[in-house]
Amino acid sequence: MVTIKDIAQVVGVSPTTVSNVINGKSGRVSADTVARINTAIEELGYVPNMSARSLVSRSSKVIGFVNHIVTDKGSNFMEDPFLSKFIGILEHVLRENGYYLMLRTVETAEQLQAFLHTWDIDGLFLAGIFKDEFFDEISTLKIPIVLVDSYVHHKGICNVGLDDFGGSNSSTKYLIQNGHKKIAFASLHIKDGGVLMERFLGYKAALTEAGIPFDDSLVFECGMDLENTKHIAKYLSSHPEITGLVTTADFLAGNIMANLHKEGVRIPEDISIVGFDDLNICNITTPALTTVHQDMDLKGRIAVKFMLELLEHRMPNPCEVSLPTSIVERESVRSIF
Q1: How far apart are the C-alpha atoms of 78 and 100, rounded to whole Å?
Q2: φ, ψ at 76 (rounded to 5°)
Q3: pTM across the whole model
Q4: Which residues contact 183 (CB under 8 A, 6 or more apart)?
Q5: Cβ(79)–Cβ(116) under 8 Å?
Q6: Apex 55 CA angle, 34 and 23, nearest 5
Q7: Is the CA virtual torsion 130, 159, 94, 24 positive or negative?
Q8: Within 10 A of 74 (CB to CB), how many other CB atoms are there?
Q9: How far apart are CA 205 and CA 214, in angstroms?
């Protein structure tokens, strides 16, 4: 195994100098020496002993991402393309800052405690958390916590989210402005106090503002995949008076569109559809999906910024951020005036 002493001997500097460069403390080391040390590290295949570094710094450099979404048997939460992309952004930004990301699904507070006792985690990201017993347990933890897409507020816990109400409100108004009055709404399971409830309320508010009566028979809750969205497509195909559909996720919209094609329903000639998130899937659906855009890269960078400040025992100000949304027009909506 290659050691710091081996690198120091090759470069002709002290082990302390090599250690400083490895640990990012190269302020007093010349650029040429830093370059030669990094070259030696690469050529010799040096791998730092993270356990030893953790003991010295009292930091594992590991940040946990805890998923509390219980998926159906045989599926996993990483199948959600939104979460997959967002976690990828978190990992990238953490890596830029010298940290590692660890993923774990926990269903109960007891499982969370077991996870934290097993692994030395410096901080936690949690997505889609609600005000419940699980959060009550989280709020007692003595480590930095950053919530993502949650409407729970607690002193000392940071939160980065989105104007979910405004995004869904805008997508519904966009359909109304294009002449649509019979507009359905499709979502995963809607729970009080969460992102999807806010998007549902945004949809309802847009209808009310336009003087369009709310019809709960036009609200669909289901899983995102092809099998779970079949009944929505069948219902829409047998009710041609429904000319618009607002959804809470691009992947959900894409699967509904695939099933509508099977039913012989044309998009946007027979029905116009709007997604949410602006994922890459929007450009490969047929037709390309009009959607609500959110800046996921910015959301991830703010979440990591919050975490890094908390790790330095500094409370971010502000410590809660709600990012704006915008409509991205593509080809899945038509005007019916």
Answers
A1: 18
A2: -145, 155
A3: 0.82
A4: 172, 175, 176, 203, 207, 212, 218, 242, 243, 244, 245, 246
A5: no
A6: 10
A7: negative
A8: 5
A9: 9
Which residue, chain included where needed, has tokens 């959804």? 247
Tell me, letter by letter, the H, E, C secondary structure of 285-301.
CCCCCEEEECCHHHHHH
In what order do the strands lie in the sheet containing 145-148?
A: 100-105, 62-67, 123-127, 145-148, 158-162, 320-323
Q: What end-to-end distance do the CA atoms of the chain give, in Å?
A: 73
Rounded Cα distance, 4 and 336, in Å: 70
Rg of the chain taking only CA atoms, in angstroms: 24
Query: What is the residue-level pLDDT of the chain in tens, covering all 337 positions?
Result: 788 888 999 999 998 888 888 776 666 788 888 889 888 888 888 876 544 544 444 678 999 999 887 655 556 777 788 889 999 999 999 998 889 999 998 888 888 888 888 888 999 999 889 988 889 888 888 899 999 999 999 988 999 999 999 999 999 999 999 999 999 999 999 999 999 999 999 999 999 999 999 999 999 999 888 888 999 999 999 999 999 999 999 999 999 999 999 999 999 999 999 999 999 999 999 999 999 999 999 999 999 999 999 998 899 999 999 999 999 999 999 999 8
308-311 contact pairs (CB < 8 A, 24+): 308/97, 310/123, 310/144, 310/145, 310/146, 310/158, 311/59, 311/122, 311/123, 311/144
